[in-house]
Amino acid sequence: MLDLSYPRVMGILNVTPDSFSDGGLWADLASARRHAERMSEAGAAIIDVGGESTRPGAMSVPVQQELDRVIPVIEAVRSESDVLLSVDTSKPEVMRAAVAAGADIVNDVNALRAQGALRAVVESGAAVCLMHMRGEPRTMQQAPCYADVVTEVLDFLRQRLQACAMVGIEDNRLLVDPGFGFGKTLRHNLQLLDGLDRFSALAPVLAGLSRKSMLGELTGRDAAGRMPASVAVAVLAAERGARILRVHDVAATVDALRIVTALMELEADG
Ligand code: 9MG
Q1: Domain 8-268 CATH (choose: 3.20.20.20, 3.30.1330.10, 3.90.1150.10, 3.40.228.10)
Q2: Is the CB of 107 within 6 Å of ligand 1?
Q3: In this prediction, what percent of the chain has a pLDDT beyond 90?
Q4: DSSP string spanning 68-108?
Q5: Packing angle, helices 92-101 and 117-124, rounded to 10
Q6: Does residue 50 have its Cβ closer than 6 Å to ligand 1?
Q7: What is the pLDDT of residues 214-262, one digit of tens each?
Q8: What is the C-alpha to C-alpha distance for residues 24 and 37, in angstroms, rounded to an integer?
Q9: Cα of 9 to ligand 1 centre, how many Å?
Q10: Torsion of CA 115, 183, 180, 172, to 10 degrees
Q11: What share of the chain has pLDDT > 70, as a percent?
Q12: Distance from chain centroid for Cα 242
């Protein structure tokens, strides 16, 4: 459904009161719609709608609350635009309702490990992004430890791809994501970025680094001041093969990725 021969941008639309960077900004329907429209006009190929924060320390919300947050937004954006929509959720009930409301992709930070999640995706016909997370958001940053983070994350994603294949989710519906910041230290995140090119052998790679705390650790800036570092790291990820960049700052990232794309086209021309 999307040409991934060059890197594309996924714009973040959190309809939550407590996300780490934009919590509360787009919580009412009118501002969520406007923000989706602006991101789409700025060149986002996908809008990722989330109704539960996955920041470190975040608590899970009840299914009905998540449904009440995301479904009206998905219905509204779908009724006025053809932009691809993904739903950021780990709950099978939300996956099913979101796809029925017009979502095209399930973006699951839990890689379809919840009971019933694999079935919900097979039956919905949606594409899916399988992300690696060690632990759960509430506790994941408590002393994460790996012998070899790249190999362990690759092994995990390989197993989740196999689980998808076994229930009949076709390869062309699958994306993988190493899960920057999800149960990883700064060093783990840098090792994953450095080794990102190894993930493309599994499936097209989605990378989410935008405004994350690793960038705060490196630059000393708060979330609002991390745009330049976010754009830089999106370019580095794209150069290492990432095909979808999940970002807050759509216009700046689209501009930067045009340069990566132009270089890719130059190389392809010989
Ligand atoms: C929901 N969400 C927050 N961070 C993310 C990331 O890095 N990747 C994906 N796929 N989803 C994310």
Answers
A1: 3.20.20.20
A2: yes
A3: 87
A4: HHHHHHHHHHHHH---EEEEE---HHHHHHHHHHT--EEEE
A5: 20
A6: yes
A7: 999 999 999 999 999 999 999 999 999 999 999 999 999 999 999 999 9
A8: 18
A9: 13
A10: -20
A11: 98
A12: 12
173 included as an active-site residue: no
Phi-psi sector, 132: left (phi>0), alpha (psi -120 to 50), beta:
beta
Span 45-96, pLDDT tens digits: 999 999 999 888 888 899 999 999 999 999 999 999 999 999 999 999 999 9
Local structure of residue 205 (DSSP, 8 states): B
Look at the pTM and tell me if it is higher than 0.90: yes
Q: What is the mean pLDDT of residues 131-144?
A: 84
Length of the chain: 270
* Interval between CA 179 and ligand 1 midpoint (Å): 6
Q: How far apart are CA 150 and CA 127, in angstroms?
A: 24
Q: Are 199 and 176 in contact (CB under 8 A)?
A: yes
Name residues whose C-beta falls within 8 Å of residue 112's C-beta, 6 or more positions apart in sequence: 106, 118, 121, 128, 130, 160, 163, 164
**Nearest Cα to Cα of residue 175 among 263, 46, 58:** 46
Centre of ligand 1 from the C-alpha of residue 268, in Å = 30
Question: Where along the chain do its domains lie?
Answer: 8-268
SS3 at position 208? strand
Q: How far apart are CA 207 and CA 51, in angstroms?
A: 20
